């Protein structure tokens, strides 16, 4: 099976933010919350000193910490690795870690701090689309550079962001196609269940239009949202069971952050087996499953571009490096460290940025942006990923995995080659 398939104003950002609220160098640096003085010229500071400063913008507390802390750790591991090999243009990378604490307006504040006060050459960060949209006007105003490592809803293409996660045609659409096909159980009814913010709502708008194009009636689509940090899924899971009566039904989950834990526990509590009502998740991975008894969840699905379980020499090396880092820096649960898709995307993004800086001979954002076009990297997924020359999105493979009893995934489908991203979905208007 083959799955081939501007910019937001500050006003739109405000609307998205309100909607989300209503809906909702080889040593490890200390997490940083206070800005420190720096010179005025960011480009000169980033390249003219003894180090090149790199911003790490991830929630290390709050509802998203369960997911984002691992990305901070991945970024620091990659920086250590680069520094051990001589750094970038002969200079060590100096990470500047800040914690926006799952507070969406604070992401904008911290991004501004990183660019104007800390003088970082680039920022690696964000997880949710609402945090990215908080940062978007800041990096555009200041001509900063953000590498965003998580799947998202599309409908955006900023010259100041490189999207190293999946667009809908590299994850959501193929996942639903799989569920509708023979291998996925030939689902006829769909539950669109998500956390209440821009990514699930926009992705589900795309999926609803896609399903209707395939002849699925509105009556066969259930759509429901819960706030960030929601913990009581008893009623919702009960309603899913009722909705599934009579027709083969699948759940598309865009639940994010720590809400995944109570949702999956409730699936187990109510005995929903994958053979009866398969759940296809877009925002649950190895990290979120690590603290759950996954035995009742065996067979449920996730769609990503990478799984820890894929077998190839590059992934073996990547996993081992992360495990060594976790032990060396005494990370919590170091002995049980897992890798996941956004961690891989973070690792790929940092290395591609390094390659682009070296090609450009400078950290100047405009020159790095130009040098990023066509950059490629042999990724832990086993594929060579490339940055599109025109749209700031990675060409990525599609993978679908089944949850195993040990919390890992068996890959049941992977695309023969990386798929070019569609930043703007053909199923809804721009």
Summarize the structure.
The protein is an alpha/beta fold.
Can you describe this structure?
InterPro entries: ABC_urea-bd_UrtA (IPR017777), Leu_Ile_Val-bd (IPR000709), Peripla_BP_I (IPR028082). Residues 1-25 form the signal peptide. With 430 residues, the chain is of the alpha/beta class. It has 2 domains: 10-166 and 312-396, Rossmann fold (3-Layer(aba) Sandwich), CATH 3.40.50; 169-309 and 401-414, 3-Layer(aba) Sandwich (Rossmann fold), CATH 3.40.50. The chain has helices at residues 10-22, 42-48, 65-84, 104-117, 129-142, 172-180, 198-213, 234-243, 260-269, 286-289, 313-328, 341-360, 365-372, and strands at 51-57, 92-98, 122-125, 146-148, 161-163, 189-195, 221-226, 249-254, 279-281, 301-304, 376-378, 384-387, 394-395, 399-403, 409-414. The strands form 3 sheets. It has a 7-stranded mixed β-sheet, with helices on both faces. A 5-stranded parallel β-sheet has the order 2-1-3-4-5, with helices on both faces. A hairpin with a 5-residue loop joins strand 14 (399-403) and strand 15. Mean pLDDT is 90; it is low at 1-47.
Global Rg: 21 Å
Count the E strands.
Answer: 15
What percent of the residues sit in helical stretches (DSSP H or I)? 25-40%
Helix and strand run: HHEHEHEHEEHEHEHEHEHEHHHEEEEE
CATH homologous superfamily of the largest domain - what is it? Response regulator
Q: How big a fraction of the residues is strand?
A: 15-25%
Question: Number of helix segments?
Answer: 13
Q: Mean of residue pLDDT?
A: 90
Which structural class do you get from the secondary structure elements?
A: alpha/beta
Q: Trace the largest sheet across and list its strands.
A: 7-6-8-9-10-14-15
- Count of the separate structural domains: 2
Biggest beta sheet attributes: 7 strands, mixed
């Amino acid at each position: 099976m083959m799955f081939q398939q501007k910019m937001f104003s500050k006003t739109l950002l405000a609307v998205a933010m309100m909607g989300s609220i209503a809906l909702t160098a080889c040593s490890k640096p200390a997490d940083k919350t206070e800005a420190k003085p720096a010179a005025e010229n960011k480009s000169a500071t980033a390249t003219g000193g003894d180090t090149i400063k790199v911003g790490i913008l991830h929630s290390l507390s709050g509802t998203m910490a369960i997911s984002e802390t691992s990305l901070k750790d991945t970024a620091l591991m990659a920086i250590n690795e680069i520094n051990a090999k001589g750094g970038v243009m002969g200079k060590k990378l100096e990470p500047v870690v800040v914690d926006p604490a799952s507070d969406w307006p604070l992401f904008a504040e911290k991004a501004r701090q990183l660019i104007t006060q800390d003088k970082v050459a680039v920022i690696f960060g964000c997880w949710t689309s609402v945090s990215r949209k908080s940062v978007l006007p800041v990096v555009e105003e200041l001509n900063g550079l953000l590498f965003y490592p998580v799947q998202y809803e599309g409908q955006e293409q900023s010259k100041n962001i490189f999207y190293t996660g999946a667009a809908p045609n590299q994850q959501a659409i193929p996942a639903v196609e799989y569920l509708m096909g023979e291998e996925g159980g030939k689902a006829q009814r769909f539950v669109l269940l998500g956390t209440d913010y821009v990514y699930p709502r926009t992705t589900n708008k795309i999926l609803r239009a896609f399903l209707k194009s395939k002849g699925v009636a509105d009556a066969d689509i259930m759509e429901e949202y819960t706030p960030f940090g929601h913990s009581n899924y008893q009623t919702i899971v009960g309603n899913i069971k009722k909705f599934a009566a009579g027709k083969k039904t699948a759940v598309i989950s865009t639940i994010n952050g720590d809400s995944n834990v109570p949702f999956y526990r409730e699936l187990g509590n109510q005995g929903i087996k994958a053979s009866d009502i398969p759940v296809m998740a877009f925002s649950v991975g190895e990290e979120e499953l690590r603290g759950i008894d996954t035995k009742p969840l065996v067979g449920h699905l996730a769609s990503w571009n990478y799984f820890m379980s894929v077998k190839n020499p590059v992934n073996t090396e990547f996993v081992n490096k992360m495990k060594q880092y976790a032990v060396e820096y005494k990370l919590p649960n170091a002995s049980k460290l897992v890798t996941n898709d956004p961690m891989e995307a973070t690792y790929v993004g940092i290395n591609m940025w390094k390659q682009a800086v070296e090609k450009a001979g400078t950290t100047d954002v405009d020159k790095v942006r130009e040098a990023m076009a066509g950059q490629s990297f042999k990724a832990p997924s086993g594929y060579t990923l490339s940055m599109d020359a025109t749209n700031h999105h990675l060409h990525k493979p599609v993978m679908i995995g089944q949850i195993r009893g040990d919390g890992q995934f068996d890959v049941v489908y992977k695309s023969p080659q990386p798929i070019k991203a569609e930043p703007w979905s053909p199923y809804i208007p721009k």
